[in-house]
Design brief:
Helices cover 78% and strands 0% of the residues. With 226 residues, it is mainly alpha-helical.
Length: 226
Amino acid sequence: MPIFWTPNKVTLLRVLVGFLAVSAFGHGASMNLLGVALTVAAIALDALDGHLARVKKLATPIGAQLDILGDRVIENLFFTYFAVVGMVSLWLPILFFARGAATDFLRALALKAGHSGWGAGAMLQSHWARAIVASRWSRGLYGATKCVCFCYLGLELALTRGPAALLGPVSLDLHAMIRAGAQTLAWVTGIFCMVRGLPVLVEGWKFLANSLAADNAGKAARGDAA
């Protein structure tokens, strides 16, 4: 029986492929190359779920939240692995986790207030905020940046690290150049992540302020009643 692919199913498949990619890294050159191929597949599936949602008109608020959750899992999965093996700074997964926790908290408050992540009732109202966070060019460029970064690090594993490295021992100058490229890509991806999160932090504070005001009003009312 044919499978009816929905955006949510593709998102779950993307997360599974991401786990398989990271699981392949560190087990020899051929497995590292397999991990790179699976990384490309995971990023491609990220584009596919959004395409299905638009073409088949299957976009839903829960689907948007699931897509964001998939992004968080993939980002933290890859950067945590590469930090653990010493290829990127430990501050990168910390940065991604903190940014994700803060923006998702504010999105949850906005959702509670009746604002979704997309459409006319979206949390982000200003044109500049939507352009940075929700536009196709921003999402596409960010996805491409992550793909290049993760694939570069995976290829570095395959080509230069371990006893089965495809390039074998490399000169100190070449090693330094490869490492500089990895650090540059990793931090460019991290900065891009922070830039895309900034509009959510800026426009999301009003939902936090409203929530705190409602809590204070509720406490005051209970105090008067007592």
